[in-house]
Amino acid sequence: MTMTIHSTHQTQARVAEVGKFKKQLTLTDLTFIGLGAIFGSGWLFAASHVASIAGPAGIASWVIGGIAVLLLGIVYCELGAALPRAGGIIRYPVFSHGELMGYLLGFITLIAFSSLISIEIVAARQYAAAWFPMLTQTGSSDPTLLGWIVQFLLLCLFFGLNYYSVKTFARSNNIISILKFLVPLAVVVTLFTFFKPENLHVQGIAPFGMSGVEAAISAGGIIFAYLGLTPIISVASEVKNPQRTIPVALILSVVLSTIIYVLLQLAFLGSIPTEMLGGGWAEISKQFSLPYRDIAITLGMGWLAFMVVCDAIVSPSGTGNIYMNATPRVIYGWAKAGTFFKTFTHIDKESGIPRPALWLTFALSIFWTLPFPSWEQLISVVSAALVLSYAIAPVTAAGLRRNAPDLPRPFRVRAFGIIGPVSFVISALIVFWSGWGTLSWLLGLQIVMFVVYVLCKSKVPVHTVSLAQQVKSSLWLIAFYALIMLFSWLGSFGGTGVIGHPWDTVVVAVMSLGIYYWGERTCLPRANFTGDEEE
Of 77, 250, 369, 476, which one's alpha carbon is 20 to 30 angstroms from that of 286? Predict the structure, then answer.
């Protein structure tokens, strides 16, 4: 990774030209950003995949996923309220563990965020093909030339909405978010009128055991559906009264989404004609590839199917728009951390938008629309990448409590001694449940990036933290990656099965607990706020 170092004169000139983020976002704006990011393509696809992997016990998968994200959200409340910084997800580890941590986290988060924009656009186009078949190639999920042009035009629209001001983005998102929730609520109410309690036990409540419940959280798209916290943190510098607004918006987003997701899954499970379950739950995802549209047609409710397809275009598009807004803040945070190009720390004075970072986001989102695997295959990778970036938060918060005890914390997590390690262990398990096929290259790539950083140490703009200290403070993360890969290879989630279930899950949980305390105790001796200013 090429690094750039500016002279003092160049840096002063650049700072003189750079604007600042404008505090324009309210609690309503921020809550809708969180809910809007959560309700994208996930709810439209996940129900049938979860049912096929876990059966009726998939309801427990949604609850576990919601608890995991809520715990992480509470940790982020402390970080976001104490340090409301743009791209905070990248910058918090730099404060606690050094630039190397920010570098590793920045790389994986940029991949996850920029690809999320494209995944949502692809999902919208796939649903739109129900009305406009010319958008998708016959017998394939790949776009036609016209379909790709439609995707490109949507990306251009999102780019334009985010180019001029954050308030323009927020207003458009609020309108879209209101529309997005009307359809899920209509689906829940309508499908419950067809509810058949026997569906929940006719093929067994948990036909695939606890391993099915666990696998559904990652492979079924549950975590993908929940991951909407980071856009809230990414715009922290643009929030009015962030110390109060950020915690309330985070908690509201997670709690409300968990309730709605559980009701949606229950409504889907109970409304399927019982005779269609004769072959078991495993084939349900094939019979209902577009779950709520297909079940509406099966039940003879064409009007509901029409509403679902409308929402299936609006919801993913709205989420794509949110991540078009959040990703530039992640790039900005990575640049501010000192291990990415300093050009991306420029903020337009009039609009308060990091426009160079927005241009890079736009380019990457176009790249990810090129022919790649299907939505179902991509979500496992993106989910694992995002959970990895989320999982660092508990260790970061614990480290800052040790090396910055006097940092003002308007929101201080109670019982952090329990919530911190528990949230990290649950995050590690969700990553582990993603399976060997995903983790073998994703975590392997992170280890390679660590080696690249160390080898290029002469080009790294180290400030007050030596390279030796950075490596010492980051080794726990590399060990975590290596051990997760090892146990994934030996375990039952796509591995060799040498360690059977549930012992592979137990081993990973115990290992993760040890890693958490290692990471907490190897934070920097003093928090590294060098070069950090309030935006």
Answer: 369
